[in-house]
Amino acid sequence: AQKVTQAQTEISVVEKEDVTLDCVYETRDTTYYLFWYKQPPSGELVFLIRRNSFDEQNEISGRYSWNFQKSTSSFNFTITASQVVDSAVYFCALSEARRDDKIIFGKGTRLHILP
Amino acid sequence: DTEVTQTPKHLVMGMTNKKSLKCEQHMGHRAMYWYKQKAKKPPELMFVYSYEKLSINESVPSRFSPECPNSSLLNLHLHALQPEDSALYLCASSLNAHNPEKLFFGSGTQLSVL
Predict the structure, then answer these.
(1) Is there a contact between B10 and B110 (Cβ–Cβ < 8 Å)?
(2) What is the pLDDT of residues B42-100, one digit of tens each?
């Protein structure tokens, strides 16, 4: 069965600090997709990234970076030089190729960036 | 237009009421989704429509009835709900349902059942 674990329920950091959000996943499939979504207080989930299981290259997009390691089944997300606008709930998610209609979300990490 | 629009934003209903949630997108997406999200919990998939046909029903009680009149619209008809159905209902769309690159979400309807 597919499973996503975000062990950090809530994190608070001071603005400009770097912060890493952890995500550990579990799947029996060899082909799967990993996602990160951001949910600000306004409610809508905003897509940040999708990675497929065959692409272990790390990705950087501005202040955001992602570290995908199949050896540890982790897909961690780092925000560099955090800003107050980064305050949100961040969800890691997984879909399996054989059940690719279904995206399973982790429980989320609530991130507070303090001014 | 990269928006998914949901109406109403807030809804309060009694257990005997019938109401509908509406979702609309004009991105040419052929897959649409309903998710339910309780406070401080992750979104849980309810239904998936692919090319206007219901492709996934996650064992949702029949008091929730989805409808996809065309590729741009998705409704969720509500009848005889229970207080525990109070939640944020999120609609999403994607280009297609097979290996979706990403889902575009609406802001949701905050539903309270009294």
Answers:
(1) yes
(2) 999 999 999 999 998 999 999 999 999 999 999 999 999 999 999 999 999 999 877 77
First-last CA distance in chain B: 36
Q: SS3 of B85, please?
A: helix
Q: Are A24 and A5 in contact (CB under 8 A)?
A: yes
> Measured on CA atoms in the order B31, A29, A78, A14, is the torsion positive or negative?
positive
CA of B114, closest CA in chain A: separation in Å?
22
Say if the Cβ atoms of B43 and A50 lie within 8 Å: no
Q: How far apart are CA B62 and CA B34, in angstroms?
A: 14
- Encoded amino acid at A46, one letter: V
B50 touches chain A (CB under 8 A): yes
Residue with tokens 């239904």: B47
